[in-house]
Write a structure and sequence with these properties.
The complex is a heterotrimer of chains A (318), B (923) and C (199). By secondary structure, chain A is mostly helical. Chain A has a single domain, classed as Up-down Bundle (Formate dehydrogenase/DMSO reductase fold). Chain A has 14 helices and 2 strands, in the order βααααααααααααααβ. The radius of gyration of chain A is 21 Å and the shape is globular. In chain A, 49% of the residues are buried. With 923 residues, chain B is α/β, with parallel strands linked by helices. Among the domains of chain B are: 42 residues, no CATH class; 248 residues, no CATH class; 131 residues, Barwin-like endoglucanases, CATH 2.40.40.20. Chain C is of the alpha+beta class. Chain C has one domain: Alpha-Beta Plaits (2-Layer Sandwich), CATH 3.30.70.20. In chain C, β4 and β5 form a beta hairpin. Classes of the chains: A mainly alpha (318), B alpha/beta (923), C alpha+beta (199). The complex binds ligand MGD (2 copies), iron/sulfur cluster (5 copies) and molybdenum atom (MO).
Chain lengths: 318, 923, 199
């Protein structure tokens, strides 16, 4: 049976890349802001905006998935904690738990700061809710278990980011996906985009001089992450070049595509890397270069996932 | 094969579902399953047996029905597992058949053409049966339509299931004109060739090769008849192949059947006869044949000489006995005129006829040869080397095939089915029968085996003859073989059959053509040749115009199925045509041309009016249809329609009843009584129902079985087995034990049938009493080997596995979906890449096809594939539906009958449907 | 124990599609949307000198190690004790992960629209919630002692069904002898559909 058909799938298309991107980034944003808050700075604004934006990202991302479900009602079976007992071998089951719990945790963790934030209290809908006695009570409770919540957030956050990769990794027919580097790549990319996002927040929305050390740290970490990402991507290139026709065709597809080469590799990784290098070690200062680099990183993060979804080649034996 | 992880999961899963079920967090799977099981329990399933209606393979089927009364619904069809014919299997057409019943495009009530609209526009108003009958009646009165001015058209289903009504209908009402849709395309020309050797002829085939037990199978232009699909043949073929039979397929393209062959011989179109004559030449020359068999059971040892006209004649004694040379005495001996064997002479003495007469032998002063010698002489220069040039197949391959075939032990050359394409098709099929005869493979295990019903009829016929009777019983139900067709042809061609002295217009037209010095068809029985002329007033009988002015079309679709479509459109639209009545279940391409459309119930809604034999099955069995559900719409069955039409045409159904009894053995009085009973009880189609009652009783009587037993067996199993193949063949193998219904009772190499056809006016190479080559004439003045123009191709076609003919079942949603899945292959025009490249044509390109001979044109979509002979293009003959009322299939693909001209061969008016070339232009 | 398996004999499959028709009617698949539980491909291989036409039926392989099942978060995809991999529509949310995981392209979505249309089309539908769908080895028929619809109708006896745990089952010898081989065994899916290759 030497006849083989090489083809891509039509089940999970661009919308799924959005889910992977926003889900991974949102979770990493929450985890990163928690870590920052717990060990580096008492900065309430950062953790609050990190949590809120992270949750929004995850809501939008999961919403994408939800909208594409054939039978959305049945989602109940997997968002209930029972799901993982039920299907411990399913990464989606775990991922669903992570993504549910990290959102709850993020809100809880940020709640004590939110109920104190005048700007929020004046918002329509949100304001009145935040003023509810029960919400205040929950906020107080959350404050008491802040450390615990923090760790839950960090673990589920990392879990979510890893899961976005593990998910693809569990599809054995596609060489590009079915390898241990995918979860690593997606985790690295998730945290890199999270850094970028938090930098944007810190440069544009809550620019506090004192945060300078955090910003510098983030920039450095991001440099490292982008470098790691580049290394992983190039080892992918090598990995897919031989060993299986499916992989080779994925490589063929990606590395002959200007979108991938220029849109992702160049402007999603190399250019921001150089820009950040110049910011960190060089002469550039001010918001513009670093915000630009961050935006490029965000765009790159999405490109990566979109291209990865598109270039997954199935080898069917007919 | 233990694999731990999933097991662990399963256990975990069970625990979880069980343990947490009470929390109501999740519907446990087991509960879901239980709920489902309950639903299924309530839905009682019922099995109803029937017969498939999508091709003349006539598979036995069972329908699964659920629900009660009005809610009854057919959910699934399967092959009847009790059937030894199709062995519980069904092809895609049969499987999808249930969707015909529920086709939303069905004809649901009688329809009458809207006043002021033209035929072909397809504007109809819904009518009651009362209105429809009134319309027909008043039109036939006002236009004074005479019985002979009527023409009946029937497709294969009307033929198989209602012939016993249709023929008596025609004869009792004085209608001499019957066009049987399958004849010219399918049955007549090709079968006539086979039948000239074996004397066979049954309405829908009489031979089912025993592929099960064969060890070599040679297919000549077969596909839909085997692997694409005739289920009864396919299941046997698959079994034989699995048992290790070697398979060789001659086809111009890599058909489904050829794809399963060990060897595909990609022959140039139209040249198969050259191939097979060369095979025969080798076999005769090398003596690679079963000498004892042919000596004893064929007319090969008969002596023959050239008559005064130079034609071969059989040498006979004064009493008309054929002659042979006895090897034991060296004397010329007289053989019995009619016998299955040559081992006894006319006086009953034991002899051993020589296959090769001594040189210089003379009878009555004329040099004589045996038929074998004459045949060898006829084709002595038709060697594999000559054939190689024509066919494009190396001589070594042809020799090898001759050797393999003759040495295989139990070889089969399939008789072939579709019988049109080239003027030489008759000779081709005849040669196939001769080759099978040469290896002694007629009616033997691992060879051709006669259908049980056919064998049974012939045996009874012999018995009747021995008892001094002309016929064993009513013509329609007991006669078979060439003698049966002979009777039918006599009735339709003889002016004295009817008091009005009109034979069929086709015969009148043929005689008129011959009188004008043109080629008239020798036996235009059941053919459409001359129809258009008759409608246009160009046929005259005894100086009077013989007009065709009214037509009843039942279960036939001539606008799509005849060549070309424009011919039938012209016929049906002609101003002389006063009345067009069409009976159908779906809006075929013919339906828009009707004045009145009468809806039939579909096959699954019918209890048929009688019992039927089991098609080509080797086992003798009776089958019938049981209705799976009550008719969904306001429909009427064919016997009731014919009864009513009799009343309209003749003013009474008196004669119809009489003729039914005489020809089909349907007891007149008892049927009438039952009819009245059912009519007053308000039963739908009461006449059909009445006929069923009486047919069951008379059949039960004939086979000596209580009628309840017959009925209950059929009801419970779908099949009433009478006798199995082994018992039947025992003592009744043809011609080993029993004469075949040829003129001589032997298998005939010297074709006496062609002498008769010559007497009917036949001239030309097709009427040769011996086998030889006849070149296909695809181009004027050019042979098949002369180079084609760069954009010129031979035209070939074949059937799609999923579609019946060019029929309405392409509208079946399941079939339509499969056809979408295989779009390029099924609906494209196949072109070889070497040719396509030169013309810069790619798969999917729109192309125009022009028939170079006739100028006809059609558009199509190219499918570039290496799976065909580069000289040819190929298309499936299943598509090109025009009627928009067939919503799923109209507008898809190209119609063959836009390209095929009206050109018939001179024996029985078979269509020369591939004898031209096509020019391709990219558009 | 019972361990169901199918052997597909490519030497006698004629690409007639009877199995597709039978399956779609038995299992009420959305043919209008061009979704089937089984397909028979018709492939041309070789060049103009040695061209061949191959028919390849395919369906769910009922893998012993089914990636579609391990990814399924809801447990809708499960395996019966006889080794049949099933989807329980009422549990399935239709995320499509299983379809992505399946190396044999065995799954398709049955959407809410398909359910609606199916009700009109089939009169009564065996199911009422949308889900991923795929070949079930006709489990409902097996439970009643029957064979799958596609096997039952296959005019070429190309689909052979049986129980690998029964020594005299028609599939056992074919599989044991190595005459029939699974597709893409290197993926570790351990399929239960085997193919007898053409010569
Ligand atoms: N284009 C084209 N023409 C062909 C062929 C081809 O392949 N393509 N094949 C040729 C051959 S070999 C043959 S044998 C002939 C066969 O030609 P037909 O015998 O005419 O074949 P069918 O298409 O089965 O039947 C014709 C009509 O019968 C209708 N019908 C189906 N079931 C019923 C029923 O229960 N009652 C009634 N009253 N009508 C019903 C169908 O809707 C259709 O309109 O066609 C020949 N002509
Ligand atoms: N699917 C399907 N099956 C059917 C039917 C149906 O309507 N649909 N109808 C039944 C009936 S009534 C009939 S008559 C039979 C017909 O069954 P067949 O006689 O087998 O008819 P086709 O499939 O039309 O043609 C057979 C093959 O002939 C090839 N061919 C064309 N020209 C030539 C040539 O010059 N030389 C050679 N060697 N090959 C050539 C074609 O490529 C095709 O593959 O099918 C029966 N079975
Ligand atoms: S071969 Fe197919 S269409 Fe013909 S009778 Fe059998 S099941 Fe019906
Ligand atoms: S029914 Fe059998 S022979 Fe026909 S396509 Fe399906 S597997 Fe092949
Ligand atoms: S689509 Fe259904 S069966 Fe498939 S993985 Fe999702 S929940 Fe499971
Ligand atoms: S073939 Fe695909 S759907 Fe079927 S069990 Fe294997 S992985 Fe699952
Ligand atoms: S086993 Fe049943 S569900 Fe699976 S392909 Fe065959 S008929 Fe369809
Ligand atoms: Mo036919």
């Amino acid at each position: 049976m030497e006849i083989l058909t090489y083809t891509t799938q039509q089940h999970w298309t661009t919308w799924f890349a959005v889910y992977l991107f926003l889900g991974g980034m949102g979770a990493a944003v929450v985890a990163t802001s928690f870590l920052t808050h717990m060990y580096l700075s008492e900065e309430k604004e950062l953790v609050m905006w990190g949590a809120i934006s992270g949750v929004i990202m995850m809501v939008v991302g999961s919403g994408m998935l939800f909208l594409h479900l054939l039978n959305p009602w049945a989602v109940f079976y997997i968002v209930s904690p029972y799901g993982v007992f039920h299907k411990p071998d399913s990464w989606i089951a775990w991922g669903s738990q992570f993504i549910v719990w990290i959102q709850i945790t993020a809100i809880l963790y940020a709640l004590p700061y939110m109920v104190e934030k005048p700007r929020l209290l004046n918002w329509p809908i949100v304001g009145p809710i935040l003023k509810l006695p029960i919400v205040i009570q929950i906020a107080n409770f959350a404050k008491r278990i802040h450390g615990f919540l923090g760790w839950v957030g960090i673990i589920t956050g990392i879990g979510t980011a890893v899961y976005t990769g593990l998910l693809l990794q569990s599809f054995p027919a596609v060489t590009l996906w079915h390898n241990p580097a995918v979860p690593i790549l997606f985790t690295v990319s998730a945290f890199s985009t999270a850094m970028a996002w938090l930098l944007i927040i810190m440069y544009i929305f809550i620019y506090h001089r004192v945060d300078h050390t955090i910003r510098a740290l983030y920039e450095r970490i991001d440099l490292g992450l982008i470098t790691a990402e580049l290394i992983i991507i190039f080892s992918f290139f090598n990995f897919t070049l031989s060993g299986s026709e499916s992989g080779y065709r994925s490589a063929d597809m990606l590395w002959n595509d200007n979108g991938w080469l220029i849109g992702f590799i160049l402007f999603g990784l190399i250019v921001p890397l150089l820009m950040e290098l110049k910011c960190v070690f060089g002469t550039w200062s001010g918001k513009v270069p670093i915000v630009t680099a961050s935006l490029l990183v965000l765009n790159g993060g999405f490109q990566l996932r979109a291209f990865f979804m598109a270039a997954g080649i199935y080898a069917y034996p007919w | 094969m233990a694999w731990h992880y999933p097991k662990l999961t399963r256990r975990g899963f069970m625990w979880a579902t069980g343990g947490l079920a009470g929390l109501g967090l999740l519907k446990p799977l087991s509960l879901v399953r239980e709920a489902r099981a309950k639903v299924e329990e309530v839905e009682q399933e019922e099995t109803v047996y029937s017969i498939c209606n999508f091709c003349s393979s006539l598979c036995n089927i069972k329908a699964t029905v659920v629900g009660k009364d009005k809610e009854r619904r057919i959910t699934k069809l399967d092959g009847n597992p009790n059937s030894t014919l199709n062995r519980g299997k069904m092809c895609a057409r049969g499987q999808a058949g249930v969707r015909q019943v529920y086709d939303v495009d069905r004809i649901k009530t009688p329809l009458i053409r809207v006043e002021g609209s033209k035929r072909g526009e397809g504007k109809f108003r819904v009518a009651t049966w009362e209105e429809a009958w009134n319309y027909i009646e008043s039109k036939s009165k006002s236009a004074k339509i005479q019985p002979w001015e009527w023409t009946m058209v029937g497709g294969w289903t009307s033929c198989v299931f209602y012939m016993n009504w249709a023929v008596p209908f025609a004869l009792s009402n004085g209608v001499p004109n019957i066009i049987a849709s399958p004849m010219q395309h399918c049955v007549a020309s090709g079968h006539l060739g086979t039948d000239s050797v074996t004397g066979n002829f049954n309405i829908h085939d009489e031979v089912l090769p025993d592929f099960d037990n064969a060890n070599y199978i040679l297919f000549i232009a077969n596909n839909a008849s085997i692997g694409a699909v005739s289920t009864s043949r396919m299941v046997r073929f698959a079994t034989g192949r699995k048992r290790g039979a070697r398979v060789v397929a001659l086809d111009t393209r890599l058909s489904e059947t050829a794809a399963k062959a060990d060897e595909w011989i990609r022959i140039r179109p139209g040249t198969d006869l050259d191939f097979l004559i060369a095979v025969m030449q080798v076999m005769l020359e090398k003596g690679w044949y079963n000498a004892d068999y042919v000596r004893n059971h064929t007319n090969l040892p008969f002596l023959t000489h050239r008559g005064d006209d130079g034609q071969w004649q059989l040498s006979v004694d004064q009493e008309g006995h054929p002659l042979a040379v006895d090897e034991m005495t060296g004397e010329i001996v007289a053989l019995p005129s009619y016998s299955n064997k040559n081992s006894l002479d006319a006086k009953g003495r034991k002899i051993k006829p020589m296959l090769n007469a001594p040189e210089g032998l003379k009878v009555a002063g004329k040099p004589v040869l045996t038929v074998l010698q004459a045949q060898m002489d006829e084709i002595k220069d038709k060697t594999p080397e000559t054939a190689s040039h024509v066919t494009g197949i190396p001589a070594t391959v042809i020799r090898r095939i001759a050797e393999e075939f003759s040495h295989a032990g139990r070889p089969i050359i399939d008789p072939g089915w579709h019988g049109a394409r080239y003027g030489n098709i008759n000779m081709l099929r005849r040669t196939q029968a001769m080759l099978q005869t040469l290896v002694g493979g007629i009616d033997t295990k691992g060879g051709w085996i006669m259908a049980a019903e056919y064998r049974h009829k012939i045996a009874n016929w012999h018995k009747a003859k021995a008892e001094g009777k002309a016929m064993p019983g009513p013509l329609m139900t007991t006669m078979a073989g060439v003698p049966f067709v002979g009777e039918l042809i006599k009735a339709l061609s003889n002016p004295d059959t009817f008091p009005h002295k009109h034979p069929a217009w086709s015969f009148v037209f043929a005689a008129q053509e011959r009188a004008a010095g043109r080629e008239g068809v020798a036996v235009p029985a059941l053919a459409d040749t001359g129809f258009r002329e008759a409608v246009e007033g160009k046929v005259s009988l005894n100086g009077q115009p013989y007009l065709a002015r009214a037509i009843l079309i039942n279960a036939a679709n001539p606008v799509r199925h005849y060549y070309p479509d424009s011919n039938w459109k012209a016929i049906l639209s002609h101003e002389n045509m006063e009345l067009v009545v069409v009976v159908d279940v779906l809006p075929s391409d013919t339906v828009p041309y009707a004045d009145v459309v009468l809806p039939n119930p579909t096959y699954l809604e019918r209890d048929e009016p009688t019992l039927y034999g089991n098609g080509v099955n080797h086992d003798l069995a009776l089958v019938t249809r049981f209705r799976a559900i009550d008719p969904l719409y306001d429909t009427m069955e064919t016997p009731d329609i014919l009864l009513k039409m009799s009343q309209i045409i003749s003013g009474t159904d008196e004669n119809f009843h009489k003729m039914l009894e005489a020809l089909s053995g349907i007891p007149g009085e008892a049927t009438r009584v039952a009819f009245e009973k059912y009519k007053s009880a308000g039963v739908n189609s009461p006449f059909s129902r009445a006929c069923r009652d009486t047919s069951f009783s008379s059949t039960a009587e004939r086979i000596h079985v209580p009628v309840d037993k017959l009925m209950s067996t059929l009801k419970e199993t779908g099949i009433f087995f009478e006798e199995h193949r082994e018992e039947l063949m025992h003592g009744h193998s043809m011609p080993r034990d029993m004469a075949v219904p040829t003129t001589s009772g032997r298998l005939e190499f010297f074709g006496t049938l062609f002498q008769w056809l010559q007497s009917m006016g036949g001239r030309g190479p097709s009427f040769n009493v011996l086998a030889s080559t006849i070149p296909a004439q695809c181009r004027e003045l050019k042979s098949m080997v002369d180079a084609l123009e760069e954009n010129e191709f031979y035209f070939t076609y074949g059937k799609t596995p999923t579609v019946s003919y060019g029929s309405t079942n392409s509208n079946n949603p399941v079939i339509a979906a499969i056809n979408r899945f295989k779009k390029d292959i099924y609906t494209g025009i196949w072109i070889h890449p070497d040719r396509a490249k030169v013309l810069n044509i790619k798969t999917g390109d729109l192309i125009r096809l022009t028939n170079i001979r006739s100028g006809q044109q059609a558009n199509g979509t190219a499918y570039v594939t290496a799976q065909l002979h580069p000289d040819s293009l190929f298309m499936h003959s299943s598509f090109g539906v025009e009627n928009k009322a067939l919503r799923l299939s109209s507008g898809i693909g190209t119609a063959t009958n836009k390209l095929i001209p009206n050109w018939v061969e001179p024996m029985v008016a078979g269509f020369r449907s591939q004898e031209f070339t096509i020019r391709i232009d990219k558009i | 124990m019972t361990h169901y398996a199918m052997v597909i004999d490519l030497t006698t499959c004629v690409g007639c599609n009877a199995c597709m028709a039978a399956c779609s009617l038995e299992n009420q698949t959305p043919v209008w949307a061009d979704h089937w539980r089984t397909y028979v491909h018709d492939r041309e291989v070789g060049d103009t000198t040695g061209v061949q036409r191959r028919f390849i039926p395919r369906l769910c392989n009922h893998c012993d190690n089914p990636p579609c099942m391990s990814v399924c978060p809801s447990g809708a995809t499960h395996k019966t004790p006889e080794g049949v991999v099933l989807v329980e529509p009422s549990l399935c949310m239709g995320c499509g992960a299983c379809a992505m995981a399946c190396p044999y392209d065995a799954r398709y979505p049955a959407t809410a629209k398909d359910i609606q249309k199916g009700k009109e089309y089939y009169g009564r539908l065996h199911r009422n919630s949308p889900s991923m769908d795929k070949c079930s080895f006709c489990y409902h028929r097996l439970q009643k002692g029957g064979e799958p619809a596609c096997v039952q109708t296959c005019v070429g006896y190309a689909r052979i069904f049986g129980d690998l745990d029964q020594p005299d089952s028609p599939v056992t010898a074919l599989v044991r002898s190595g005459k029939a081989r699974p597709l893409m065994a290197h993926l570790g899916t351990r399929p239960n559909v085997y193919y007898i290759p053409e010569k």
